[in-house]
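Researcher: Please translate sequence to C-alpha coordinates.
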Amino acid sequence: KEKQDAEKAAQKAQEAAEKKQKEEQEAKEKEKLSADAAAQKVYDDQAKYEEWVRTSAIIGKSPGLGDRVDEFAKKHKISSDVGMIKSFDDDHFNAVIVDGRIENLTINATAGHKMDSLVSELTPSDGTEVSSTVDNSDPLLSKHISIGRSDMLGIAIPRSNGFYTRIDTYDSRSGDYLHTTLAIGQKK
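Model: Translation complete:
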Protein backbone atom coordinates (compact mmCIF):
# COMPACT_ATOMS: atom_id res chain seq x y z
CA LYS A 1 0.00 0.00 0.00
CA GLU A 2 2.86 2.40 0.82
CA LYS A 3 4.35 1.67 -2.56
CA GLN A 4 1.04 2.47 -4.30
CA ASP A 5 0.66 5.68 -2.27
CA ALA A 6 4.19 6.69 -3.16
CA GLU A 7 3.55 5.95 -6.84
CA LYS A 8 0.30 7.98 -6.73
CA ALA A 9 2.09 10.88 -5.00
CA ALA A 10 4.90 10.74 -7.56
CA GLN A 11 2.36 10.62 -10.40
CA LYS A 12 0.45 13.60 -8.89
CA ALA A 13 3.72 15.53 -8.50
CA GLN A 14 4.61 14.69 -12.11
CA GLU A 15 1.14 15.84 -13.30
CA ALA A 16 1.41 19.04 -11.22
CA ALA A 17 4.86 19.75 -12.67
CA GLU A 18 3.60 19.14 -16.23
CA LYS A 19 0.54 21.35 -15.58
CA LYS A 20 2.76 24.13 -14.20
CA GLN A 21 5.12 23.83 -17.18
CA LYS A 22 2.17 23.97 -19.59
CA GLU A 23 0.74 27.06 -17.82
CA GLU A 24 4.14 28.77 -17.98
CA GLN A 25 4.44 27.93 -21.68
CA GLU A 26 0.93 29.32 -22.33
CA ALA A 27 1.80 32.49 -20.37
CA LYS A 28 4.97 32.93 -22.45
CA GLU A 29 2.98 32.45 -25.66
CA LYS A 30 0.37 35.00 -24.51
CA GLU A 31 3.14 37.45 -23.61
CA LYS A 32 4.78 36.93 -27.01
CA LEU A 33 1.45 37.39 -28.82
CA SER A 34 0.82 40.54 -26.80
CA ALA A 35 4.31 41.88 -27.61
CA ASP A 36 3.84 40.96 -31.28
CA ALA A 37 0.47 42.76 -31.31
CA ALA A 38 2.02 45.85 -29.70
CA ALA A 39 4.90 45.82 -32.20
CA GLN A 40 2.43 45.42 -35.08
CA LYS A 41 0.38 48.37 -33.76
CA VAL A 42 3.53 50.54 -33.59
CA TYR A 43 4.40 49.47 -37.14
CA ASP A 44 0.84 50.14 -38.35
CA ASP A 45 0.78 53.53 -36.59
CA GLN A 46 4.16 54.44 -38.16
CA ALA A 47 2.92 53.31 -41.58
CA LYS A 48 -0.24 55.43 -41.16
CA TYR A 49 1.87 58.41 -40.04
CA GLU A 50 4.21 58.05 -43.02
CA GLU A 51 1.25 57.77 -45.41
CA TRP A 52 -0.28 60.89 -43.84
CA VAL A 53 3.01 62.82 -44.30
CA ARG A 54 3.26 61.67 -47.94
CA THR A 55 -0.35 62.51 -48.80
CA SER A 56 -1.69 65.35 -46.69
CA ALA A 57 0.75 66.76 -44.16
CA ILE A 58 2.26 70.21 -44.30
CA ILE A 59 5.89 69.83 -43.28
CA GLY A 60 6.60 73.41 -42.18
CA LYS A 61 4.65 75.70 -39.89
CA SER A 62 3.49 77.21 -43.16
CA PRO A 63 3.55 75.37 -46.54
CA GLY A 64 7.08 75.55 -47.93
CA LEU A 65 10.08 73.32 -48.61
CA GLY A 66 9.05 69.70 -49.16
CA ASP A 67 5.35 70.51 -49.31
CA ARG A 68 3.01 70.09 -52.23
CA VAL A 69 2.89 73.14 -54.47
CA ASP A 70 -0.93 73.16 -54.36
CA GLU A 71 -0.76 73.75 -50.57
CA PHE A 72 1.74 76.59 -51.07
CA ALA A 73 -0.48 78.10 -53.80
CA LYS A 74 -3.39 78.33 -51.34
CA LYS A 75 -1.45 81.05 -49.46
CA HIS A 76 0.52 82.64 -52.29
CA LYS A 77 -0.64 84.00 -55.67
CA ILE A 78 1.11 82.47 -58.66
CA SER A 79 2.80 85.09 -60.87
CA SER A 80 4.40 82.81 -63.47
CA ASP A 81 4.46 79.12 -64.28
CA VAL A 82 7.22 77.76 -66.50
CA GLY A 83 7.08 73.98 -66.12
CA MET A 84 9.07 72.99 -63.07
CA ILE A 85 9.69 76.63 -62.03
CA LYS A 86 6.87 78.67 -60.54
CA SER A 87 6.93 82.20 -59.14
CA PHE A 88 4.55 83.50 -56.50
CA ASP A 89 3.57 86.88 -55.09
CA ASP A 90 5.20 88.96 -57.87
CA ASP A 91 8.43 86.92 -57.80
CA HIS A 92 8.84 87.21 -54.03
CA PHE A 93 8.95 83.39 -54.00
CA ASN A 94 10.51 81.26 -56.74
CA ALA A 95 10.00 77.51 -56.48
CA VAL A 96 11.37 74.48 -58.28
CA ILE A 97 8.73 71.75 -58.32
CA VAL A 98 9.47 68.03 -58.76
CA ASP A 99 6.66 65.48 -58.60
CA GLY A 100 4.31 68.15 -57.23
CA ARG A 101 6.56 69.03 -54.27
CA ILE A 102 8.70 72.11 -53.64
CA GLU A 103 12.34 71.00 -53.72
CA ASN A 104 13.95 74.44 -53.96
CA LEU A 105 12.47 77.72 -52.77
CA THR A 106 14.06 81.16 -53.08
CA ILE A 107 12.64 84.00 -50.98
CA ASN A 108 13.71 87.38 -52.31
CA ALA A 109 14.30 90.46 -50.12
CA THR A 110 11.32 92.65 -49.36
CA ALA A 111 11.44 96.44 -49.61
CA GLY A 112 14.25 97.86 -47.52
CA HIS A 113 16.33 94.69 -47.86
CA LYS A 114 14.77 92.86 -44.94
CA MET A 115 14.66 89.12 -44.44
CA ASP A 116 11.09 87.86 -44.60
CA SER A 117 10.04 86.67 -41.14
CA LEU A 118 8.23 83.82 -42.88
CA VAL A 119 11.51 82.12 -43.93
CA SER A 120 11.87 80.01 -40.79
CA GLU A 121 8.23 78.89 -41.06
CA LEU A 122 8.91 77.49 -44.56
CA THR A 123 11.47 74.96 -43.27
CA PRO A 124 10.32 71.61 -41.84
CA SER A 125 8.72 72.06 -38.42
CA ASP A 126 10.65 69.10 -36.98
CA GLY A 127 13.92 70.31 -38.51
CA THR A 128 17.05 70.64 -36.43
CA GLU A 129 20.25 72.40 -37.44
CA VAL A 130 23.11 69.99 -38.08
CA SER A 131 25.80 72.50 -39.06
CA SER A 132 26.31 76.09 -40.15
CA THR A 133 29.05 77.99 -41.93
CA VAL A 134 29.70 81.37 -43.54
CA ASP A 135 31.04 81.48 -47.09
CA ASN A 136 32.80 84.74 -47.99
CA SER A 137 34.71 83.33 -50.98
CA ASP A 138 32.80 85.64 -53.35
CA PRO A 139 33.95 89.24 -52.74
CA LEU A 140 30.47 90.54 -53.59
CA LEU A 141 28.34 88.06 -51.64
CA SER A 142 28.32 86.66 -48.13
CA LYS A 143 26.43 83.39 -47.68
CA HIS A 144 25.29 82.08 -44.32
CA ILE A 145 24.75 78.35 -44.90
CA SER A 146 23.04 75.98 -42.51
CA ILE A 147 22.26 72.30 -42.97
CA GLY A 148 19.16 70.91 -41.30
CA ARG A 149 17.67 67.47 -40.78
CA SER A 150 13.98 66.55 -40.70
CA ASP A 151 12.32 63.15 -40.35
CA MET A 152 9.15 64.48 -42.01
CA LEU A 153 11.13 65.70 -45.03
CA GLY A 154 12.80 62.27 -45.25
CA ILE A 155 9.36 60.66 -45.44
CA ALA A 156 7.90 63.19 -47.91
CA ILE A 157 10.95 63.19 -50.22
CA PRO A 158 12.94 60.02 -49.45
CA ARG A 159 15.90 60.89 -51.72
CA SER A 160 16.59 63.95 -49.52
CA ASN A 161 17.49 61.57 -46.67
CA GLY A 162 15.78 64.20 -44.52
CA PHE A 163 18.45 66.85 -45.16
CA TYR A 164 17.87 70.40 -46.36
CA THR A 165 20.08 73.45 -46.85
CA ARG A 166 19.27 77.08 -46.03
CA ILE A 167 21.44 79.79 -47.60
CA ASP A 168 20.91 83.42 -46.54
CA THR A 169 22.71 85.66 -49.04
CA TYR A 170 23.89 89.22 -48.30
CA ASP A 171 25.63 91.94 -50.31
CA SER A 172 29.18 91.95 -48.90
CA ARG A 173 29.76 95.67 -49.40
CA SER A 174 26.50 97.09 -48.05
CA GLY A 175 25.50 94.19 -45.77
CA ASP A 176 22.01 94.26 -47.29
CA TYR A 177 20.04 91.04 -47.24
CA LEU A 178 19.35 89.77 -50.79
CA HIS A 179 17.56 86.43 -50.58
CA THR A 180 17.27 83.04 -48.90
CA THR A 181 17.38 79.73 -50.73
CA LEU A 182 15.92 76.60 -49.20
CA ALA A 183 16.73 73.32 -50.93
CA ILE A 184 16.43 69.64 -50.18
CA GLY A 185 19.68 67.78 -49.62
CA GLN A 186 23.03 69.09 -48.46
CA LYS A 187 25.09 71.79 -50.17
CA LYS A 188 28.62 70.47 -50.47
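Researcher: Any highlights?
Model: Strands lie at 78-82, 85-88, 93-98, 101-108, 128-135, 141-149, 163-171, 177-184.
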